[in-house]
Write a sequence for this structure.
């Protein structure tokens, strides 16, 4: 196993489609809830502790070898917005494509066979982490970090936010990412015994409703 | 008007990852169209569809920056049945989606082949971008860079990856040259100097010839691809 594999998987330039998504930031900017670094930090904190936590737990459970079908259904149940479900599967499919080339493995091949149109992205992330020789905490870190880094880089484009200030937002949230990851891994370890119901179900209603409204805009920079 | 040299110049061999689909069948030839905003990429795609749709099975992927305008234009013009036109959203960064992270575009071309195939050619239009935006070889087998005479007649001289390395350079809107004071002969000489023998087509989509030369080039690429 290589520690550096974690950096490869977590790299924002890993070619898995994330660049086209704002993680709800575009809708929040339009609604006037994100206007600068301070409100971006609030937005990201909320996202990290809700959908970020769920994604991290699902990814960790997948990395531990839980059944991808069960995890995909659990992720669906925790994603009320049909738009976000579609986006999550699309991103899962894109990650699967990149992951299979980066870390060829029978488990990733089987996942592609079973979900030709994609499984929820955190499920694929966990299986890709396994294929890369990484563990559940690594997978959870990728998911938690992504839940923040996505909106941060999108907001740099949307608001012309100072990129140093934007990066400082991510840095300030790093200790909270540690907390979220340890909670996520704790619940993921219970899935083997208790099933996917053990996973957290924190949700962010504004992210869900905002995604539905955003999908109806005629003019937008990001897919979600 | 065609100031370029022989279209039979082959350029680099047809390249592109995985020429066969998982079932072993040869996939469609994928041709990218890139170039600055408003140079005439969508108009060229529309013209190519009209010229080629009766002889080859075609589909189009558009990459719009913040709308679905290109796809909607093609749908409105009815250049192809709607199920053969797909729009990809690019997150404010058109060159990323055609070069650095091609996953969404690959998905679009594969879904088109699955759903409306078999296809002979898929045209992938990039969102309008800058002179450095080129397609990944993992996405397309050949690329066309479209500039226009109204964008300044010094663009061929400036060069850049699109102008110098594209398999075909199209200088569009030659009808506007007298109105904007662009010197076509100079553009042709500069392009020749930059491109090391690669072909150049000058066209006006307002003329009767339209995209005829580009269509001939596509036919040639397809012949090489299926040979
Ligand atoms: N006069 C003239 N106008 C043209 C020609 N080709 C295209 N146009 C016009 O130029 C404008 C832009 O053409 P498009 O095909 O939309 O350009 P595009 O490169 O697809 O633009 P983006 O996708 O926005 O980057 C349209 O109004 C076309 O009708 C031409 O040969 N001559
Ligand atoms: Mg266009």
């Amino acid at each position: 196993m290589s520690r550096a594999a974690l950096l490869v998987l977590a790299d924002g330039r890993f070619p898995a489609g994330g660049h086209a998504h704002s993680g709800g930031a575009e809708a929040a900017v339009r609604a006037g809830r994100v206007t600068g670094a301070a409100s971006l930090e609030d937005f990201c904190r909320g996202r990290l502790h809700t959908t970020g936590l769920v994604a991290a737990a699902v990814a960790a459970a997948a990395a531990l070898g839980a059944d991808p079908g069960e995890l995909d259904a659990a992720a669906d149940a925790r994603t009320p917005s049909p738009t976000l479900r579609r986006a999550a599967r699309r991103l899962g499919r894109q990650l699967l494509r990149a992951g299979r080339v980066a870390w060829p493995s029978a488990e990733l091949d089987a996942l592609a066979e079973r979900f030709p149109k994609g499984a929820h992205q955190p499920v694929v992330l966990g299986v890709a982490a396994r294929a890369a020789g990484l563990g559940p905490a690594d997978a959870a870190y990728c998911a938690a970090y992504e839940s923040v880094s996505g909106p941060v880089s999108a907001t740099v484009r949307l608001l012309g936010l100072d990129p140093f200030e934007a990066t400082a937002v991510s840095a300030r949230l790093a200790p909270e990412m540690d907390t979220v990851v340890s909670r996520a891994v704790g619940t993921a370890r219970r899935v083997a015994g208790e099933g996917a119901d053990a996973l957290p179900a924190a949700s962010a209603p504004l992210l869900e409703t905002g995604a539905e409204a955003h999908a109806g805009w005629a003019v937008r920079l990001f897919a979600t | 008007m065609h100031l370029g040299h022989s279209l039979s110049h082959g350029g680099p061999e047809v390249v592109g990852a995985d020429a066969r689909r998982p079932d072993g069948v040869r996939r469609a030839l994928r041709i990218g169209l890139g170039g600055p905003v408003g140079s005439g990429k969508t108009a060229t795609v529309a013209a190519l569809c009209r010229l080629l749709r009766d002889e080859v099975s075609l589909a189009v992927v558009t990459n719009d920056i913040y709308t679905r305008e290109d796809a909607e234009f093609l749908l409105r013009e009815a250049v192809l049945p709607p199920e053969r036109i797909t729009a990809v959203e690019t997150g404010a960064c058109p060159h990323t989606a055609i070069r650095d992270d091609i996953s969404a575009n690959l998905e679009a071309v594969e879904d088109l082949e699955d759903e409306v195939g078999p296809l002979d050619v898929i045209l992938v239009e990039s969102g309008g971008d800058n002179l450095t935006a080129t397609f990944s070889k993992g996405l397309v087998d050949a690329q066309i860079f479209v500039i226009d005479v109204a964008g300044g007649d010094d663009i061929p001289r400036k060069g850049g990856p699109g102008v110098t390395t594209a398999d075909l350079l199209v200088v569009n809107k030659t009808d506007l040259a007298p109105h904007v004071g662009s010197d076509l002969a100079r553009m042709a000489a500069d392009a020749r100097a930059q491109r090391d023998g690669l072909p150049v087509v000058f066209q006006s989509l307002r003329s009767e010839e339209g995209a005829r030369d580009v269509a001939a080039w596509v036919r040639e690429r397809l012949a090489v691809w299926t040979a």
